[in-house]
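In practice, a research group might receive sequence data for several interacting partners and want a quick structural hypothesis before committing to experiments. The following worked case mirrors that situation: the sequences arrive first, and a predicted assembly follows.
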Amino acid sequence: MEQILANGVYLGAQYAMIALGLTLIFALMNVLNFAHGQMYVIGGFVTYTFYGQWGVPFILALVMSCVTLAILGALIERFLFAPVIKGSAREESTMLLAAGIAFFLDAVILLVFGEKQRGVPKIMDGVFNYDFRLIMPYDRILICVLAIVSIVSFIGLMQYTKTGRALRALAQDRTAAQLMGVNVDRYSMIGFALGAMLAGLVGGLLVTITGVNLGMGGATSIKAFMMVMIGGAGVISGAIWGGIILGFMEAIGLALLYQYGDITYLLIFISLMIFLAIRPQGLMGKPWG
Amino acid sequence: MQRRTIMKAALTAMTLTALQATTAIAENTILKIGFVGVTSGPAASWGISNQRSMEARAAWINETGGYTIGGTTYDIEIVSFDDQKDPKRAIAGMEKMAQEGIHYVVGPNVDDGAAAVRPVAETNGIMYFPYAFPKSLYEAPASNAVLGMVANYQSGPAIYKYMMAEKGVKTVAFIAANESDPLSQRDGGVEAATALGMEVVSANVTYQVDTTDFTPVLTPIMRTRPDLLVLSGVSPANAPQLIRSARELGFEGVISTETAQDAGVLAEGAGDLANGFVSVGGASTPELASPMMIEFVKRYTDMFGEYNDESNTKVYALEYILETLKADPSGITDVDAFKATMDTFEAPNPYMNGDAKLRYVGMSSFGQKRQVAVPLVVNVYQDGAFETLFVAEVD
Amino acid sequence: MLKFSLKQFVGVGVFLVIIFIGVPLIIGATGRWDIYYTLTSVALLAIASAGVWLTFYIGRINIGQGAFALIGAYVSAILVVKAGWSFWISLPAAGLFAAVVAILIGLPILRLRGVYFAMITLVLTQVVTLTALALPITNGARGISNIPLPSGISVFGMSILPDFAAMENTKLAFYYTACIIMILTYAALYRLVNSRLGHLCRSMQQNEELASSIGVNISYIRIVIFAISSFFGGLGGAMFGSIAQSVYPSSFQVADSVNFMLNCFLGGLGYVFGPMLGTLVLYFGWDLLFEFGKYQMLIYSTVLIIIIRFLPNGLLSIRFNKGGDK
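A structural hypothesis for the assembly, expressed as tokens:
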């Protein structure tokens, strides 16, 4: 039982971080960013290059991941998403753009970083073992703590800074925010950069545990979509709850249903569908279309 | 990484100029050999290691003057098609090969692709060498597919037998990704282990291909305390993580798999925790590698910047095609002649020390000779490199 | 309601002549026989994409068509291999089965909108793949292989449909079959969009509450449209199974569902023939870039991004008015 809880917390924290960036971008611009997973992978590879290849301190490598992705995000928003959103009759058209960017980043990752699975030296050795009832390697505990710290500081940023307030205003009502004197274009870009940065940060953090390979992108995006849905699209707290719930669902599901083998995930997915059918706007989302 | 990119760019430029130079000098006829497989997306490493070993070997042949078959000297050209691991695309790839007039194709890399291209290959007279294990591909009435490696239902029993005899293994647990190829391999493994009298303590735990954290997946298996943990059909990306999670959960038994792995990936992803991990490889361990294998590895590394140990098992298909064509030159246009030659063909194995032979096998598994005889080299990982555990033969 | 202008008639006529006479002539002249399969694929994927387009028409983003294509492929394969049906009967049966599944699933999930509907359909694709892996009737992970080619049908000794297994070259036969089904699909789609139902759909796309308040039975229309959409998916999937002569759980997966959706976006959501053009460009484009080797994906995605950057409403928004739009 302790093990299941610990696994749930660990999975939940990392999932919540992945979902946060996605939901932020969605809240601001109504863009379902298919390339979110690829951004996560790039974050992982940047940290791998700096920390794993060149021996730069881990924290510095993490910062590099954040910076790279923030710049990438800003550029993508400024030169691709913003003009397309302005020009398209139906805003869902941005999905095609997002998918195109996902393909593009996949191709770039393959050409630059190669096809192999990559990993970095462990940032911390040793395993916490409480009587074989609770086993957790120290590096996982550290990453989990770092993830929680990042989430808390992100919430702090959104709540108490000028940028955060502007972003929240933008998410609530674009037109009203504009009328109140918020520079919408500028803050859209900042918001997108922030969302991409979160993806890069979590990629950099997790590369120490799971490593990174070019195939993780698409799968990560899909998982992030599910968490966002569970919690309610475009709601920050919803993303965090969605991540935690999916983390626990997996931890508990795998622990209880493992003897059903092949259908464990089938059951997880079906329960997800039932949940959404009952609660179409997710846990905390607005009943909106 | 920057350094590697620059190096790659420089190498590409170099090979390009080298290629131009050779085409300028060489007046040889071109012999096209195809490759249809996955070289992008999550499974890219399977196809890329495959494609690159073919390209490295072809470049080598061309550089040294070409390959002589029946009095004509050919330059080898590799035509590759990325099927994105999609069976629908794989068919398109095979059509493309037919269009190019190619009769010998390596790939596809997975079960569904290999099954899907069969109609095209058979109507167009293409022999193809898939890396997929379903027996129906190789048993009559199918006749155009040749298994390009050792199947898990052949290597599995050999490994388990060895484990029982040498390590006193009695109980075994299987874990597989929830996907066609790994699940089929797991079922084959369970069957083999049961037949050998091992006790299968857990066989129904699966994980999603996109799993990033294997601790919750492995926890229930660890409770059954098996002596041997088999990672059925594990992809090179997942292997180090599974090993790491299992070891961190306190697993002390042996971990093995029946697919080829890369030592560098294991070293980065699991470090010392991967010590003792048993996998299937080709002939590149120091004890077995012939001078030709060593040169192949060197050329591959020069050409692409980094070697991939998965290529050890994938160097053979092209060699088999060329050697068999040499044995009967009419095979170049006539696939039926090639098939007839397969029954009697035999040539020395250039990649392995000793008197190993290249020949076609498969009578006991498929009832016809539709498999290349690759030495079944079982490796064990130790401190960043593979060591040979034992070598066996497939019949 | 259905008044065709002369221009439209000519457009459709030209289109038919091109695909039934022009393409075979060109292929015969150039010897590029591999194009047949590519175009057959385009036709079949365009059928499934037409279904996705139809769900867009009622304002739903559908990323679940891969699920219905897979269902169709399996139903047809099982009926042919295990029950010994003729492929030609199993084909509509596959479509109908997919439609029935769509009705059952659609009842609860069609209440969802926007990204929620998009995501739940995405999950649906995975659910169907996993179900195919787990069920005994689908042969689980081993898939169904060695499916016989479509057999002929004759009535009173008159051969209506030829026996594919007896043919020298099945490529052309599959090409014609796929094109005929595609044309029927798009004709049906065009008819539907220009019918009363089509008008109701458009009103739903604008505003469901408003449509409902003026007496439109929106839940009924949603189900009907979703069922028709899935019927198309099932048809396309079943045809693919018979060309590959095998079906695996991975025959249609999430990537396919996403591609079906992208086809619609690329062609243009406002145009009936958008998905057909989108499929042609996306699928054929990949094939054309084959020469570029490892840069294929890079070039492909760059072109895609450029297209959507400058034509955010789809290719047809440059008023390429062939065959008539809505």
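Before designing any experiment, note the following. Residues 67 and 73 of chain B are 5 Å apart (CA to CA). The interface with chain A takes residues 1-2, 5, 39-45, 48-49, 178, 183, 203-206, 208-210, 212-213, 215-217, 219-220, 236-238, 240-241, 248-250, 262, 264-265, 268-271, 306, 308 of chain B (CB under 8 Å).
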